[in-house]
Write a structure and sequence with these properties.
The chain is α/β, with parallel strands linked by helices. The chain folds into two domains: 127 residues, Leucine Dehydrogenase, chain A, domain 1 (Rossmann fold); 133 residues, Rossmann fold (3-Layer(aba) Sandwich). The strands form two sheets. Strands 2-1-3-5-6-4 form a six-stranded mixed sheet, with helices on both faces. It has a six-stranded parallel sheet with strand order 9-8-7-10-11-12. Strand 5 and strand 6 form a beta hairpin. The longest helix has 16 residues. Bound molecules: NADPH dihydro-nicotinamide-adenine-dinucleotide phosphate. NADPH dihydro-nicotinamide-adenine-dinucleotide phosphate binds next to helix 4, helix 5 and helix 9. The site of NADPH dihydro-nicotinamide-adenine-dinucleotide phosphate has 26 residues, from helix 4, helix 5 and helix 9.
Amino acid sequence: MSIHRVGVIGWPIEHSLSPLMHNAAFAALGMKDWQYDRMAIPPDVLGHSIKELRNHDFVGINVTVPHKEAVMRYVQADNLAQVVGAVNTIDFRTGIGTNTDVSGFIDDLAAHGVTIKGARVVVLGAGGAARAVVYGLAQNGAEVAVVNRSLERALDLARTLLVPFRLMTLTEAADWGASLIVNCTSAGLQPNVSVTPWHEDVPFPKGVTLYDTIYRPARTSLMRQAEAASGQAINGTGMLVRQGAAAFKLWTGVEPPVEVMMDALLDALGGL
Ligand code: NDP
């Protein structure tokens, strides 16, 4: 039996939960000839490694930190990946790299019944995750405001992301009447679980939905702030699952078993 190989590259990569998700999906669908591996690739051998994986008959790969931007030198990035400025999924059969973080985020909002069209949305952060989130929100009809700790990175986002959004201070964003706030900063990420990007001296707006792209820990300090202000709080587990599900569909052509992938991930996260 010849094996269809897929996987994820990063540096480091031990933390990645993608193999669990994808291999659980293959098992559930009886796809015994598919296998997903994690591969530690240092930055200085990225180009060579991409060539090797292609030559070793990999169908495709996911790409994670720190390679999402650099890998664009070695594959043909599609329009979406070019605008977002990052590739997280490659199909070696076509040589094309795309970005499934955008649909992963948008699909997960839809799964939670969160309306985007016409909504005012505040995005905290201006790094890689923010690029995908701001782009997805603006393309789906939201009015977006970005708040970032450093002005320089926020200005870079404004210069390079080809969708309209405003830049605000946290105080301005708190009074803007947003119905959704999305955390795309790494503030609060394990192990720094007491950190929050929402300063305690700025009141958190009442009854707002908070989407935290962080999934480790499952409940962040920021999520607690939103809940204390009578809002709904959602973590980033679903975004991770759905970006993976989109890659699965691209490589296999098979409808991904999203619930199976979600359960595999929640099991693993519960055990951490
Ligand atoms: P980047 O390093 O590209 O960006 C980090 C951002 O966080 C910057 O805007 C930075 O601000 C800000 N930041 C960091 N620390 C603080 C702090 N203490 N207070 C306020 N702002 C802070 O990271 P990524 O965009 O790749 O990742 C960001 C988050 O998104 C991570 O937590 C990651 O887990 C999550 N993520 C989740 C995904 C999912 O599928 N659920 C997918 C991808 C990412 P500054 O510019 O001032 O440094």
